[in-house]
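Form 7-S
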Amino acid sequence: MSQVSKIKLCNITKKFVTSEMETHALQGIDLEIFAGDYVSISGPSGCGKSTLLAILGLLDTASSGQYFIGDLDVSNLSINQRASVRNEHIGFVFQSFNLIDELSVFDNIALPLRYRHVPLSDKAVAEKVSACLEKVQMSHRAKHKPNQLSGGQQQRIAIARALVNDPAVLLVDEPTGNLDSKNGDAVMQMLGELNKNGTTICMVTHDPRYADMAKRKLYLLDGVMADELSLELAV
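Output:
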């Protein structure tokens, strides 16, 4: 039985042009992420990891190449179209959490549901939020504000928010970057459990120990996919 492709990049390039220079951040990237995959992307600082994740998350566009989410070509969408597709198909977990302190944990998680094309009933919203809180073991914190939580707890809430729309893929940017080792280990263990239960994950991390927890390890070097040996020689 063939694997179902969730995300596919074909010959993706990204260049940044100023009056003084042209920088090739990504060069000829081919990448396929399948249903149930757990992919880590590693590499030295400045190798293009963040640029690649921004393109995957429709927060930026490639200079050339094609990007498919399922059968949908999202290579040349408008800003509004990208926002709509991102909300419905992609869960994005930011290193800095990006929670809104004025809103409760419940309302932070519910926020993506408020922007759906087809609105949900209050009951359906409550059911989805409660299910995601349970997944990240934070049901007891639903009424709290983010600034009442530890960093590890805030990251769990950020993950729950990213999961609430049942995304095709969960994109995770340095999930342990703002956490101590104990909380970092706990978050990584939770990501592993989510993947075991069917969540498709693509994670950028600088930590080789956490990268090893993924099913597939990919490496970027100077904007191109590299094997592990060439990466070790470079650093």
